[in-house]
Structure formats: structure tokens, C-alpha cells
């Protein structure tokens, strides 16, 4: 059975299509500001002679939610508008696609390392689980002199006054201490919850509780546990709690291990992690109390908490709660982007939208003003607003139909392309009763009704013919895309935000710059045109650069994903583009998630 999702991917181009501005790249990327300005001015004088605006007439085909103040629509000055920044983001993303753009880790993708954990796998489990378990085990456990040793070690994660982090390692002879859950409960007269993870301090000792505990406990002694045949112990579940004393650590400044900022950032970005947050959790012990209980660190430390960690070349590469924590794949997301798409070639999106301090944007987006009063739907709790989840590598990475490839696959991997959301007219955006209880992942929203109208302008200055052709391709002003609709705002994964858009091009006339007034009134600045000559010139330029084949595939699949008519009339369409349920918290997990079924491509979904 194939996987289904509210999204799919437009394939990557074979290479970057250089903008005509790229001819000045050497000077434009120079550190010399005067040299950059001179080069940019030379380009404008030679080619950048087109200015004007594009009128946008927009109608919502499904409810639309642009997040503003909490659950309400974006409504500055008391009226709902479609922010220019939202229109800008949509246009820039599509321009990247239609003009075979480059990929930058700080702009086009959240370049991070995806985390995973796979504690065990049996012969009955799917093959992918065995592969992932082997990868996890090899990282967490090693062999030295013919003996199995833990690569994962234990220590105390410390935060200093400057926001930096270090791990103070536990002395090896104290690393394996543990107590039966039953003994712990009897000793401290407490009851350990069956579910949940925590750090509990008893004087100078931290007791680390991980994951779900068995409802059945061996309440008496270690001898009672050891009396159980070894073959049965595994069925008993977690019977032990590990504990670590502050006096068991090596607090020498020379021996503490730094945690790089990138590792901290990756840990924060691991949104699938549950349980103890080692950076924010209440299990952190303030420095003053820790020092009074025997910790020997310096005055720069402000708090500590026990952790498991992996180390390489004198730095922490991963850390987490307990000794079986989630770890990152070695390869980051940008490692799955072909190298030839990460070059410093100036693509059309960068040329037109600007490059930070080097040159400014030449396209400007006004807010979409409403036509009449915009009606709102009732406020309600929505299904979880899904975030990118590249842990599901069977959906995000190209697969060849054989062995599933994860992010660290030996043969290398490639992401499937630009992520976009399907239109889904029949989608119900409201949360179920069980989902509404998950207050950490759901929120209330107030969408505006379908049939709402907005009008906006996209102004441009000093574009070349090719740049204008690339920009117009986004709106398909030649008329071929009459059934196309665009996706805006939050809730795209829920079927919200489908917007029909009619675009009209107006070019500034030469007279506008020489005659301010005409018969006592301001001169008309622009004349209406269909822009076909610029679209034709841009398409010819694509062919000249040897990208016709992949560009035609891109435009076909993009048209399929934007096709509102298909979503509006095709029987059973909503089931083809329905998100699979994978909510572990509610126990509602689709079998296709368990089997890691592969997501079909755009053509396969569209053509059924």
C-alpha cells in the first residue's frame, strides 16, 4: 500500500540556471562595496530597463488562516488583510522552482541533523527497523580489545554564564550504578509513574528515570530480580533506575568536554523528542546548591543536570536523557542536496529579491486589501499544524524501490525536491476530541471564509527581460494555467489556504519618466500588456542552458500540484492527499507509518 500525504515534492533541477546578473558575479560577490555597486549599476544600465507592477485579484477557494495575534486572522488596524510578506514568500518560493534555483542552508532549508533512536529489532520487524537498529547500536556500543563497551557515557551537562555548555564526565568506576524501581520506591516512600521520564535529586544524587516503566514491579530486593531466569528478565521491562552522585564526577576544568553550538541547535530542533529537556527542564540543579553538595566546578557554571553523551575528538557530538538517548544522523539535510546546486551561482531569485547587504530587492509586495467585509468562521481547535518531519526518510528522500535509504545510507541519498501542499477541498481542519486534548501540539484558529476577495500590487523596478520573464512564469500570465490556485498561510497541510489568483501586468511607459502631469492630472504610469514576449524569452534561455528536459517536468508537476479543478472535481481526491495518522500520543498510528511505505511521486498521485 502506498503512503499518502498532504504534500509532495517538485523534483530538483539538474543544475542551477544562472541569472543574467551572474555575468557580474566576481565583482558582485567582492568585499569591496564600491566595486559591487559599480558592477550592479553597469548591469542595470545595460539590461535593467523594465519597471511596472502586477495587479493581483485573489479569491479564497478554501478557508484561509494567516496567523496574526494568537488565534485571530492578521488584522492590523481592525481589518483583515493578506500581508505583503506572505505574498512575497509564496512568490519567491515558486520563483526558485520555476527558475531552477540554488539551495542555501541558511535560506532554502533548515540545515540541521535529523535525530533518531532504534533500541531493538526482531526478525518479525520490517527490514528497515533492523537496519536502523544496527546503525544505532554501532554508534552507541563499540568493541575494544574484543570486549563490548559503551560509546555512550554519562556525565553532568553544565551551562555557564555566557550560555555555553560543557559535559563533566562521570568517573568510570561510578558510571553503572543503578537501583531497582521497587527499592527506590520503598527507600524514598514514593511511587514512580508508569509513564514518563524525569530527574529526581536526593541530596547530592540524581536519579534518572527514563521512558515508560512496567506496571508490574519487583518490589523487594536485587536477589528477587536475580532469581528470575535470565531468559525472562527481558519481559520484565525496565526494573532499574540509574543514579549519579555529584561527588562521582571529574570536575576538573581541563577534563570538561565542550558542547558545540551546532550540537545544541540540533538538540533544540529535534521536535520529535519527548520527556526531559536537558536545556530547560526543572531537573536542572542550580550551581550554588550543586557546589554545596560536592560539585567542584568553577564560578562560571550556573546549573547542572545528568546526561548521556557521545564524544569525538574532544567534543560532544550528541547528548540526551539517560543512556539510550536520541542521536543525530551523521549527515545533515544539506548533505542530501547535490553539490552542484549549492554553488555561489547567482540565480534568478537572488538576483531579483536581493542578496542581503550586497544589493537590494527590485520587487516589492503591497498588502492584499479586502473587498468589502471579510467574514470569519467560528474559532475552533485545529488539527495539529504539521511541521516538516524529515525523520520520515521514506517520504523525504529518493528511494529506489529496494532497501530503504535513511540519511546515513552508505550509497548516499538525495532529497526528493521542493515540498509543496496539495489542494484539498474536502479536508476537515477541525481537531478531533482526542486531538483537542493535546494542548502542546494543537491551537485554536479563526480562518476567514472561502469566497473572500483581496487585491494587491507587486511592484518591480529595473528588471531585465529575462528577470521579468522568470517572475511572470510564477503567475503564468500567458494564460495556460487558468485552473491553477496557490497556497497561502498556515494550515496548508489541513487543506486551508487555496487561493485563485488573476494577475495583470502593467509596464511603466517612457513618458512616465518625462511627464509628471497630463492635462493637470498625474500621468498614467503604466500600460497593460500580457508579457508573452518575456515568458518566451525566458523559456528560450532555459533551453539555451540545457535545462529544457528537467524544466518541462518541473512545470508539468507544478501545474498538477496547483490544479484546483482536479481537486475540485475528481472523485476520491481527498483520500489521495490525506495525511496518514502518526500520533503516538493518542495511539493512532497508521500501519503505513509502521511499514515505512514510500510516498508516490506527483504524477502517480495526480493520475491516480
Summarize the SSE layout with pairings.
Elements: E1 7-10, H1 25-28, H2 33-46, E2 50-60, H3 84-98, E3 115-116, H4 127-140, E4 141-144, E5 147-150, E6 153-160, E7 165-169, E8 178-180, H5 181-188, E9 198-202, E10 205-209, H6 222-226, H7 230-233, E11 240-245, E12 257-259, H8 261-269, E13 285-286, H9 287-292, E14 301-312, E15 315-320, E16 327-328, H10 348-353, E17 363-365, E18 369-370, E19 380-381, H11 393-396, E20 418-421, H12 433-436, E21 444-445, E22 453-463, H13 465-475, E23 485-487, E24 498-508, E25 517-518, E26 521-522, E27 526-529, H14 532-544, H15 548-562, H16 564-569, H17 573-576, E28 582-583, E29 588-589, H18 591-595, H19 602-607
Antiparallel strand pairs: 1-20, 2-22, 2-24, 3-16, 4-5, 6-7, 6-14, 7-12, 8-11, 9-10, 10-11, 13-14, 14-15, 17-22, 18-22, 19-21, 23-24, 24-27, 25-26, 28-29
Architecture overview:
This protein is of the alpha+beta class and 608 residues long. It is 25% helix and 22% strand. It contains 19 helices and 29 strands. Strands 2, 17, 18, 22, 23, 24 and 27 form a 7-stranded antiparallel beta sheet that branches. Strands 6, 7, 12, 13, 14 and 15 form a 6-stranded antiparallel beta sheet that branches. The chain has a 4-stranded antiparallel beta sheet with strand order 8-11-10-9. Strand 14 (301-312) and strand 15 (315-320) form a beta hairpin. Helix 3 crosses helix 13 and helix 13 (465-475) crosses helix 14. The protein is globular and about 90 Å long. The two termini are 13 Å apart.
